[in-house]
Specification:
This protein is mostly beta strands. The chain has one domain: Neuraminidase (6 Propeller), CATH 2.120.10.30. The strands form 6 sheets. A 4-stranded antiparallel sheet has the order 2-1-24-23, with no helix packed on it. Strands 3-4-5-6 form a 4-stranded antiparallel sheet, with no helix packed on it. A hairpin with a 5-residue loop joins strand 7 and strand 8.
Length: 287
């Protein structure tokens, strides 16, 4: 499906150069979203190996889950799980470290964070059918990103403090629109706005931002001290407290528990992702 990419660069991990990323697995659930009820079923461990497998991202219209997977030397490559065939392939096989795979709006590239052994951390994009990376941003230390359109991105930029920024590729210009934010950036289904977690107060909250004018609006609180979330197509928010998965919908004050299939339990739940049709949920858990 994809050509393996061998790039001539070297680089450094999200933690430190010498540390192995924490062991995590990715589970894939069938997801059923109704007006006032959300259920999950048929959990499948799609990684099922020792080591770091994390940051799942669904292709918008193909049965693919892209994710970052570390080898024994702690170098991460992007892998693809096809949930129709149950097969896994490497998308990259480089001497660098790739994180946070994301499909570009034109569906021609996979953008990701690329870390180098010399300390640089760039945002790049790989042709979705295989090829060498093209640098998008190398003037900011981008931690996480999502696309606004083919030209503009919404960025989590590392610093003191971490900042929320928009960035125009054509203008090579960024604009700070928030500080002390979380890593979870998402397009809000059905709107031209995006969500982020504001961590500037003791009680974290989810806010929306309009990238055209930078205006902010409060959406709801987070689950206490948790920042990872995903949206369903009908604008429910799915979050976890680390062991349970819950959802919030407009009009609710509280999050509602989503029951696991009988006999299933998980610990260390962090990142979550919902596919575009709202019938699959990817969940990252501790090994």
């Amino acid at each position: 499906m994809k050509n393996l990419i061998v790039a001539p660069f070297l680089f450094i991990t999200l933690i430190t150069f010498s540390q192995q990323p924490p062991g995590t697995e990715i589970y894939l659930f069938d997801l059923d979203v109704k007006k006032n009820k959300v259920t999950v079923s048929n959990p499948k461990n799609i990684t099922n190996r020792p080591g770091y497998d994390n940051q799942p991202y669904f292709h918008p219209n193909k049965p693919y889950v892209y994710y970052a997977s570390a080898d024994d030397s702690s170098r991460t490559n992007i892998h693809i799980f096809n949930y129709q065939t149950g097969t896994t392939e490497k998308f990259t096989e480089t001497r660098e470290r790739e994180y946070s795979p994301t499909v570009t709006p034109d569906k021609k590239f996979i953008s990701c964070i690329l870390q180098r052994d010399n300390g640089a951390q760039d945002l790049v994009k790989y042709p979705i059918d295989g090829g060498s990376p093209e640098i998008i941003i190398n003037t900011l230390t981008v931690g996480y990103h999502t696309w606004i359109d083919n030209d503009k991105l919404l960025l989590f930029v590392l610093g003191q403090p971490n900042t929320l920024r928009t960035y125009s590729i054509m203008e090579n210009k960024d604009l700070v629109i928030g500080e002390n934010i979380g890593r979870s950036l998402h397009k809000i289904p059905g709107f031209n706005s995006f969500s982020f977690v504001d961590k500037s107060m003791p009680d974290w909250v989810i806010k929306s931002v309009n990238p055209k004018d930078g205006s902010l609006e409060m959406i709801t609180k987070t689950i206490h001290n948790h920042e990872d979330l995903s949206w369903t197509p009908d604008r429910k928010i799915i979050m976890s407290d680390g062991e349970k998965i819950l959802y919030w919908q407009p009009g609710n004050n509280d999050y509602i528990l989503i029951e696991f299939p009988k006999g299933q339990s998980f610990k260390g739940i962090t990142r979550l992702a919902v596919n575009a049709t709202g019938n699959k949920l990817a969940v990252v858990v501790s090994e």
